[in-house]
Design brief:
The structure is a single chain. By secondary structure, this protein is mainly beta. It folds into two domains: 138 residues, no CATH class; 224 residues, Porin (Beta Barrel), CATH 2.40.160.40. 5% of the residues lie in helices and 59% in strands. The strands form three sheets. A twelve-stranded antiparallel beta barrel has the order 15-16-17-18-19-20-21-22-23-24-25-26. Strands 6, 7, 8, 9, 10, 11, 12, 13 and 14 form a nine-stranded antiparallel β-sheet that branches. A five-stranded antiparallel β-sheet has the order 4-3-2-1-5, with no helix packed on it.
């Protein structure tokens, strides 16, 4: 009897599991062609609040909405054939995701002809939603997309079903040099169309996509975090923290520039003043292996008796984990380091140089849809005259406020194992800790 009940329960559970993907959803078609699938939360006289299955909560002025379909059947992305979607020019076909009242001339991604004069790129998400805009880059299993109506967006590659970009792109396939041409990606194939040939490759061999046109700005991303506080009265205090990250990506390379500065003044006395600038250029040898040349760091902290410190080297890196939710990379290599001290004891030299070994790692995990945890660590192993081992680590909780606005809570640790004594005989404390709360803007 118990076995029979168990079988019945399992069958009911299976039926519910199969039916859960068939729940009806609302659909909104925006002027210009973008289509969103989800649920209408509220509809006012001027605006519509919509919960997209992929993009989350959105609000549109009604004059941007072309059509609303209540309880529309969501696209079955598992069973439909991607090639049939591309070649279907009948907007009323049963399996076509085109809204029935819209002509195919307004929806270029569904047309059979690949018109390279189209000014926009198109992507389709697994939810069946279509977005129009510009592909900024595909690298490390993340697609950056500048939507025509929804601004800058980032998607895990596994959540992107199709890409159609008529503009010239530099496409990098595994084991091949970059190819320039228009790109069409389906669930299982990459088609690259150039002026004299058409090449097709399996989708799993795709490593990166980057625009090959004249817009240099499309290759760059930027992130600026700032935290400022002031206090007056019995204690006068001013704090300022700035963290700027710039990155330029192509299908086979990655250039990064990272600046972190901290300044604190209490009752007219400077208690913190340090600046760190790191520049890196990575050349990818394969999907996960890259060569870093050069690897440059400039550091200044007079309160640690360091007027300047310059480290120049190279290294080899590898992505230990590269999944849509977790990334972990490590890099190691030799370097040369020069130190200039603010002051030294009698008989000591004011500068020191030596070989160094640089070790670095970055770990990034998506804890929830709106919270990320990022850990960055950099260690430089040098001689005793240069301070022995130096360590720099940042542990950050990142909270999404808006598409381009985040709140960061960071703990920063800097350590010089053997600080140089000043002319007064005082040796700086090896460790510095800072807790920084800042607002971050991304581009």
């Amino acid at each position: 009897m118990n076995r029979c009940r168990l079988k019945v329960a399992l069958r009911l559970f299976g039926v519910l599991f199969l039916l859960r993907g068939k729940v009806s959803a609302d659909s909104i078609s925006l002027r210009g062609g973008e289509r969103l699938i989800g649920q209408i939360l509220s509809e006012g006289a001027q605006t519509i609040v919509f919960e997209s299955q992929t993009l989350g909560r959105l609000e549109f002025p009604k004059d941007r909405v072309e059509m609303i379909e209540n309880n529309a059947r969501p696209t079955d992305t598992k069973s439909s054939n991607p090639n049939s979607v591309l070649s279907d020019t009948n907007p009323t076909a049963q399996n076509s995701p085109i809204p029935p009242t819209t002509s195919t001339s307004e929806f270029r991604p569904w047309n059979e002809a690949f018109e390279t004069t189209d000014a926009f790129d198109w992507i389709q998400l697994k939810s069946g939603e279509w977005l129009k805009g510009r592909v900024k880059s595909l690298q490390e299993d993340k697609l950056e997309f500048d939507s025509d109506k929804l601004n800058q967006l980032e998607f895990h590659w596994k959540d992107v079903r199709m890409v159609r970009s008529p503009r010239p792109n530099s496409v990098r396939m595994e084991g091949r040099p970059p190819v320039i041409g228009s790109v069409m990606v389906t669930t299982n194939e990459v088609e690259i169309i150039s002026s004299d040939s058409t090449n097709r490759f399996p989708r799993q061999q795709l490593l990166a996509i980057a625009p090959a046109g004249d817009r240099e700005l499309d290759k760059w991303t930027a992130k600026l975090s700032t935290g400022v506080s002031f206090r007056a009265g019995n204690t006068r205090e001013a704090d300022a923290d700035v963290h700027l990250t710039l990155q330029r990506r192509t299908p086979g390379t990655r250039f990064g520039l990272d600046y972190l500065g901290n300044y604190t003044k209490i009752n007219g006395r400077q208690s913190e003043d340090n600046h760190r600038l790191i520049g890196e250029f990575d050349y990818f040898l394969s999907r996960r292996l890259y060569l870093r040349v050069p690897d440059v760091e400039y550091f200044r902290d007079p309160l640690q008796n360091l007027s300047h410190r310059l480290t120049v080297g190279s290294g080899v890196g590898y992505d230990l984990i590269s999944t849509p939710r977790t990334e972990w990379s490590v890099t190691a290599g030799p370097a040369w380091q020069d130190n200039w001290f603010k002051s030294v004891e009698t008989g000591e030299t004011s500068n020191a140089s030596s070989m160094a070994m640089v070790l670095s790692t970055r770990f990034d995990i998506e804890l929830t849809a709106r919270i990320d945890y990022i850990f960055e660590y950099r260690c430089q192993i040098t001689s005793a005259e240069d301070g022995n081992n130096t360590h720099h680590a940042i542990s950050t909780l990142e909270f999404d406020i808006h598409k381009r606005l985040k709140l960061d809570l960071s703990l920063v640790w800097d350590r010089i194992a053997n600080p140089k004594a000043e002319s007064s005989g005082i040796t700086p404390t090896p460790d510095d800790f800072r807790l920084i709360t800042s607002l971050t803007v991304e581009y």
